[in-house]
Amino acid sequence: MGSLLRLLLVLLVAVAAGAPAAHAWRKEGHYMVCKIAQSFLTSEASAAVTSLLPGWAGELAETCSWADDERRRYPWSGSLHFADTPGDCQFFYDRDCHNMKGEKDMCVVGGINNYTTALMNSSAPLVDPTISLMFLAHFVGDIHQPLHCGNTADFGGNTIIVHWYNTTTTNLHRVWDLDIIEKAMKDFYNDDLSIMTQVIMQNITEAWADEEREWEACSTRTKTCADKYAMESAQLSCDVAYAGVEQGSILGDDYFFSALPVVRKRIAQGGVRLAAILNRIFSESSEPQSS
Question: What is the edge-to-edge ordering of all strands in the sheet holding 250-251?
Answer without folding.
Answer: 168-171, 161-164, 250-251
